[in-house]
Inverse folding.
């Protein structure tokens, strides 16, 4: 199946700093990528939809200035958590969509962010 | 919002079939049913999907009722490594996760 990678897998940062997370589709082109966050023992929550070459579409309640998304190429999308605070600590997961007939998504392994 | 309802948890003996139900009574005609699972601290893994016909692959079988208002994911011979949270998702353009079913496979 298609492979999606994320980097880094874990990151610890100080409060007030910005953190960038990369999501790559390794063996297919993804015109659309999705970003999720997941708190412990909770389900995945969709944050935004990222389309190559255009602005991301954010879900209700997600601050676009807080979570900057860039999708500069068909294989790379980045999520930048700006001025991170402890409440931003979470598991961030990206998904890239296979543009076949069924629009199924392939998920990265996730990035665990801890803000001190 | 998620358009599916699943039991919170289920148990299954190793080697037996695990049947995970999902209700999606408001499904639209062009919406697929997707199943994913998530093992602790990993990204979700695609299992199977279908529109209206039953589907089978190397991982599982998907049975969709004729009215498409519910479906069942079948793991024919569950192993301990199948312990995970299983998500049933109905959508066309983006995957919205519900609470899923926590499947515990025991020896």
């Amino acid at each position: 199946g298609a492979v999606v990678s994320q980097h880094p897998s874990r990151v610890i940062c100080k409060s007030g700093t910005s953190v960038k997370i990369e999501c790559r589709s390794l063996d297919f082109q993804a015109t659309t990528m999705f970003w999720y966050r997941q708190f412990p023992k909770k389900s995945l929550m969709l944050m935004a939809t990222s389309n190559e070459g255009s602005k991301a579409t954010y879900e209700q309640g997600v601050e676009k200035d807080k979570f900057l998304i860039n999708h500069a190429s068909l294989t790379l999308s980045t999520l930048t958590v700006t001025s991170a605070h402890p409440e931003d600590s979470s598991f961030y997961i990206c998904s890239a969509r296979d543009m076949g007939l069924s629009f199924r998504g392939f998920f990265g392994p996730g990035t665990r962010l801890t803000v001190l | 919002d998620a358009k599916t309802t699943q039991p919170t948890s289920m148990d299954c003996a190793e080697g037996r079939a695990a049947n995970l139900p999902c209700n999606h009574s408001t499904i639209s005609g062009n919406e697929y049913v997707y199943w994913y699972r998530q093992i602790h601290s990993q990204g979700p893994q695609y299992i199977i999907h279908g529109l209206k016909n039953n589907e089978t692959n190397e991982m599982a079988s998907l049975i969709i009722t004729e009215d498409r208002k519910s479906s069942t994911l079948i793991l024919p011979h569950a192993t301990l490594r199948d312990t995970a949270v299983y998500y049933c998702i109905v959508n066309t353009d983006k995957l919205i996760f519900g609470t899923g079913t926590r499947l515990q496979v025991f020896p």
About this structure: The first strand of chain A starts at residue 4 and ends at 7. Chain A touches chain B at residues 1, 4, 6, 34, 36, 43-46, 49, 91, 93, 95, 102-110, 112 (CB under 8 Å).
